[in-house]
Amino acid sequence: MKEERTLNRLKKPALCVGALGLAIGLWSFQDDLFQISKNLDVFASVYKEVNLNYVDDINSAKLVKTGVDAMLDGLDPYTEFVPESEVEDYKLHYVSTQYGGIGAGIFLRDNKVFISDIFEGFAAQKADIRQGDQLLKINDIDLAGKTNDQISTLLKGSKGAAVKLLLKRGEEAPVVKNIVRDEIKQPNVVYYGMVDGNMGYIKLNKFLENSADEVTTALVALKKNNPNGIILDLRSNGGGILQEAVKIVNLFVAKDVLVVSQKGKIRGKNFSYNTVATPMEPNLPLVVVVNGRSASASEITAGALQDLDRAIVIGQRSYGKGLVQQTFNLPYNSLVKITVAKYYIPSGRCVQELDYAHRKDDGSVIKVADSSIHEFKTRNGRSVYDGSGIYPDIPVKQERFANITSTLISKLYIFDYATLYRTAHPQPIDPKTFRLTDADYADFTKYLQGKNYTYTPVSEKILKNLKTEATKEKQFTQIQAEYDALKAKMASNKQSDLQMHKDEIKQVLENEISSRYAYEKGRYEANFKYDKELAEAVKTMQSKTQLASILKGEGSFKVIGKPVLAMAGKKEKEDND
């Protein structure tokens, strides 16, 4: 009894503390509600006074959206408000690739509208509309002064509806094209086929609706060729729907295996996603190709297959987005997309690189600290790390275009020459074997005569700054001879750039010209012969010994992207960006 009374006496203070904690919690909750109510009242009052008293008319919808955007700006770039006017574009970008239109892309140049791309099999191609054609009017509406969005809206419409276009090709007289809009469904899988080594190749551009079904269709078709391996290309794939990534992993991984889990502040947002079906191809050698723009669902796919030791990852370190978003409906048909969780792939690692919760004093985002990077293990015991995207098993350095090549692309001289080439060479070509001759390249350099394709390389900017600083310090006269010699050398190099970078420029020209005959498919096939990551994938799968060594984690393959390598990878990615 004495022990019981003592126990009861000990319990009473605990009950008091518990009651006090409850009271504090309730007070804190009520205070939060008061602060929220107070600040919303202040926001509404500020808007009311500005709307009533501001000297000029204001766009109330724009004003409110600016306020909401500013509120969300301190979180992460993926948490965003979508007003009613932008909902359809949002769904097209993040959910579905289906809409009514003619099957063509456009761009503006010098206040003129041109066709940039033609989607094979749709109305524009059937009507012989080509890349480079100038679009003058849509349904008799002059396009002068119209924005890109306004023109896209005019082109889009319900399936089966007619649209009248006035187009001009080169120096030819304008012609009218009466077209019936198609239901445009841009594929997620933009290309699949057989490449060197009898390898099956699948290029997946998005993880939107039906992407897993499209990969399945491609895999079924490729298997008819008895491939020696499969290459899944996720380069520059920014992601999309998480569940589609799980389904794609399931094509290669056994049933009831964890692919990814998501964990958030709210327990109801925590989910684990396992494979649910018998895999279509559990044993065939598999390579996943990634680069610095492979993000989100791409990283789930590549990372899960790496963690499960099912695939070799080749390329450059991926983007590092380990955040999950969910869309919530708001009044008046608007939406808000909110980051609700982080995702974790089978080894337990999260690939998120930027730490949005701990910014610098100036508001800039910092990377996950080196001290916070942890080691995890793949199924076979290989070491992998969190906080820095998916590091490839076999890194391939990403080559950067020379300044001259980038300038020719940005000034659209490559694009325009490809259009002229198509007109002068009407016979079909095979993109896989097509090569520009030296005579063709000489014709291209002749085409450039009189055109402005000058550029200022970084070294030239540094040299100019050197002169400025040396002049300030009254030392320029002492180095002027060396300065003038170096400047002359740089000018000479620029003049010879067309020949110095001939092979690279020819490659870009071949890709663009091939698209004039075989559209996007032509670009991929023309580039196969130059694709270093693709060549490395084929080479790796052709060596069963190396393939086994990598997946077993033998020798140098025991560790993938250990911190020192991860830091080097970050530097490489920054350079590439």
Automatic annotation (TrEMBL):
Top-level taxon: Bacteria
GO annotation, cellular component aspect: outer membrane-bounded periplasmic space
Example of a GO MF term: endopeptidase activity
CDD domains: Peptidase_S41_CPP
Pfam families listed in its UniProt record: PDZ (PF00595), Peptidase_S41 (PF03572)
Example of a GO biological process term: signal transduction
InterPro entries the UniProt entry points to: ClpP/crotonase-like_dom_sf, PDZ, PDZ_sf, Peptidase_S41A, Tail-specific_protease
Similarity section: Belongs to the peptidase S41A family.
Alphabetical list of PANTHER family matching this protein: CARBOXY-TERMINAL PROCESSING PROTEASE CTPA, TAIL-SPECIFIC PROTEASE
Name of the featured protein: S41 family peptidase
Natural source organism: Mucilaginibacter achroorhodeus
